[in-house]
Amino acid sequence: MNKQSATVYLREVAHEWGRCLGDAVTAIVGYGSVYEPHFNANESDLNLLILLADNCDIEATRTETIALWDKHQACLKRSPRMVLESVWAKHLMLNPVLLEHFRHTGRLLYGGVRQQDIQLRISMSRKLYWWREAFLCSQALFQVEKRDDLMRLWRQVKKTAEPMPGELVARLGEIWHAFDFPTPPHLQAAPQEVAPYGIQNLIALYSSIDVLVVILGGVEDLLATDWAAVEEQMREQGYNSARVATPIQFYSMLSSYDTLDVQLLTYDYVWGIDIVAEIKPKIANSCYAAARFASDLQVNYFADCYFPHAMSPEHSSHHIHELQNKLLNIRLQNEILTRFALIDPFVAESGALPDREVADSLRIRAIYERLGEWVDYYIDVAHKYGE
After folding, report:
1. For a surface tag, which of 49, 203, 308, 328 has the fewest beta carbons within 10 Å of its beta carbon?
2. Pairing label, strands 211-216, 241-245
3. What span, in angstroms and rounded, lies between the C-alpha atoms of 312 and 334?
């Protein structure tokens, strides 16, 4: 399907979805690479955002549209984002680069979008966004399943629809070069006799469960490293994967966006300059990060785990189990933050979640609403500190 056919197809699908949902839907928006130069007919997803009225039953609405997803999933590739209007407004407030992206690529395909006053209380430059994405996608050097993410990022940065050519490390280097920044003196490595893994100009090493985090001086060091040899050694030491970054990339990401990772001690120091120790995270930034996590579950995780299969009882139980695990992670984050006396503990307005004897649809709806309570709670706490 070429680009012109894809845009026509998206509009037709949006109208089909709109007719199915009736008054529950307020707008359907197409977005993403299909409206940008780097659209690739063989690899790019076709993205739909379905905005629903706040008073609709989102669980019942999703159930009504599973047949449509089964019909169109081969072409769409990615589950539509089906979101209440108020939930979407908060998600954009927490993700300023996403807001910019929708303003640039979003196309109204059905209905009408009411003008929303989205007040951004956090900032994130496009450079910082690319740095963070490049850090996450660097796992492609060690995990085959991550290569599609790196290819997608490379096409976005290069603004080309062509498939990504050549070696992965060279393409990651091109992404780094496009958004490179000099390393501040205090983050430059002192001479070491022998660096672990034989890596040239190694600045630091961290571990995050079974992932090794490698901090390098710059693009030249990325290209000069024998990553096959590094992978062999790290797997012998129990690591299953690795991520790679420059000092300023890692420092900027953790100090202004992923600050919650600092306070939750996500990264264990292993060797070199302790960059994380230099970071003094603001409580408000950590609360925004926690709110983003819950909001992402509402907007993205719900869609990705809901639509791939019809809701058989087995799939429904698995879906609920996974969501409850995610809620447990959020609860543990909150307990750590309160234990450090950084914030007041969360108290659910809606009380305890329904138990297993209750219908699955009611349990899923309650989890969705509880995630919304977590988002509101963390946004309120962040506003309270006003940082």
Report:
1. 328
2. parallel
3. 33
pLDDT tens, 15-48?
Answer: 999 999 999 999 999 998 899 888 888 878 899 9
CA–CA distance, 120 with 114 (Å, rounded to integer):
18
Which segments within the chain are labelled E, that is strand? 25-31, 47-52, 81-84, 107-111, 202-208, 211-216, 241-245, 268-272
What class is the 3-111 domain? alpha beta
Residues comprising the chain, all counted:
387
How far, in whole angstroms, is CA 267 from its chain's centroid? Answer: 18
Q: Which two tokens stand for residue 186?
A: 């205090």
- pTM of structure: 0.86
Regarding beta strands 25-31 and 107-111, do their DSSP bridges make them parallel or antiparallel, or are they unpaired?
A: antiparallel
**CB 346, CB 334: distance < 8 Å:** yes
Integer distance in angstroms from the first to the last C-alpha of the chain? 48
Exposure pattern of 120-142 as b/e (b: 16+ CB <10 Å)? eebebeeebbbbbbbbbbbbbbb
Tell me the one-letter amino acid at 200.
Answer: Q
Q: Are 210 and 240 in contact (CB under 8 A)?
A: yes
Distance separating alpha carbons of residues 186 and 116, to the nearest angstrom: 43
> Domain locations in the chain?
3-111, 126-256, 283-385
285-335: pLDDT as tens digits: 899 999 999 999 999 888 776 665 544 556 667 778 888 899 999 999 999
Instruction: Write out the H or E segment, with its range, that includes residue 70.
Output: helix 66-76
Using DSSP, state whether 179 is helix, strand or coil.
coil
